What we know:
It is a single chain. With 227 residues, the chain is α/β, with parallel strands linked by helices. It has one domain (2-221): 3-Layer(aba) Sandwich (Rossmann fold). 38% of the residues lie in helices and 18% in strands. The chain is built from 7 helices and 7 strands. Strands 3-2-4-1-5-6-7 form a 7-stranded mixed beta sheet, sandwiched between helices. α3 packs across α4, α5 (113-133) runs parallel beside α7 (172-183) and α6 packs across α7 (172-183).
Amino acid sequence: MSELYYNSLILPDLGRTLALLPEDVGVVWLLRHSLRPPLPDKIFGMQVDLTPEGVELAEKFGRSFPKRLVSVRSSPSKRCIQTGAALVSGTGTALEVTLNPMLGEPGAFVTEVEASRQALVQYGPLGMVERMLQGELLGGERSITEGVRMMLNSILDSEPEPGTWHAEVTHDTLLSATLFCLEGRTQLVVEDWPRMLEGAALWRVPGGVRWIWRGTVYEREWPGLHP
């Protein structure tokens, strides 16, 4: 997965999403952070900075946003905070990046950080998320359905006004667990994995959520979502 992780300097294609996005809803963007250096083999969770290319990429991505962004929240991880700040810089606004612990570890999915990291080392990111999608409890995490409920309530409760956008910057495993559980997936391939800065546009509908991911609109009811 190294090419998807570290070597892609291609920005996500906003055009496909914008073409499908209603004008009269408030949208939450759930995004993976920008480019960071490769971590040592089987080492995860380190507080590493973005690379200079990662900062530049996030700023460029921010410049591609229409002038709708009204707020940004981030995982407590440095690379996510820096991504949010660079995104804001690119938009030319003075928004403050605030923290949302649900986007990190511990958070919506992870309850015990060390146990979760051991599973990550054992199975790798894709393998771990795939096992979670199949209903396994690997240690240190909530059930994936409960994690998705907590994640959705956390990000959708931001309630951006119609026509405005809110951004939440998180990690590949948490973004993948959320989106692919909503899709009902149980198996993944490398090409499914979110690239740097890739994400989905989500908004609330009665009883559930609607979202756009890679040019496709999805909708799903989900129990326990706040009205």
